[in-house]
Design goal:
about 150 residues, mainly alpha, DUF29 domain-containing protein
Length: about 150
Amino acid sequence: MMSTLLYDSDFYRWTVEQVERLRLGKWDGLDIENLAEEIESLGSQKRSELENRLAILLGHLIKWDLQPRLRGKSWRLTIKEQRIQIKKLIRKNPSLKSYLSEAIADGFELALVLAEKETRLKPKDLPKECPYSIEQIFDENFPIGIQNV
């Protein structure tokens, strides 16, 4: 009961005490309900990070495709950075790979909002579905000519 109160009043202290109890094998006094919630939240954060990084990557690929005159080093490097970060995230969390198709679909929805916000493109000018395969999304030579900017 004390741990639950501490969770609400001093989260940092709660984490220190929970870690100490876990490491010492002191199962009595563990705040199981809040521990489970926090662990679940950590997993959700990784999924959200994947979706957000895909949204940025896809948004920039859309801008690249639909506004060729505005292509530049900044867009190219954002695409490159997001590909690297996503690959690293999946390497460190391999089970996220099974969630990739769903994350692309969810990220694409946000990518459309970002592309519309950052350009003069209208919703009717944007693709309705993600036009890129998983292979294209992660291919450092896609779109063709990206390395030349």
